[in-house]
Amino acid sequence: MYLLNILFLSLTSLGLINQSNTMADPITWTFSVEKVSDGTFDIVAVADIQKGWFLYSQDNGDDGPVPTSFEFSPSDKVTMTQDVKEEGELIKKHDELFEMVISKYKSKVTFRQRYKSSDATGAIKGYVTYMTCDGLRCLPPKDVDFNVSL
What domains does the chain contain, in order, with CATH numbers? Predict the structure, then answer.
């Protein structure tokens, strides 16, 4: 009986440890295209951030958290016309976790990449790389692929 109790407790502990390591991603991404004018469009990437978590700006240095970045696959039909812009309530202050001033977002942030295209067929493919932390711990950087129709 004693051996069965030890086995049961061991299996229960392993199950709890495994559950904590498979936590769902606290960032949800949506991607779309908005027409700005004839031949000019924006790829819009919206990051919904779970309460208590933060997503880092593109404008953080190399010594801190991994900054959010976008990579677009080359296309003959598309010309990117500016850098990716951020829209949201930017928090820029000293961060206890990284012991430096960093820029981050909580709740929600929108990223816009303007481009020109004379052909409204096809798609733009790429990925976003980001890192998220909750003040006590950080999840490893992650890539999320996207594929939006022109």
Answer: 24-149 (2.60.40.1250)
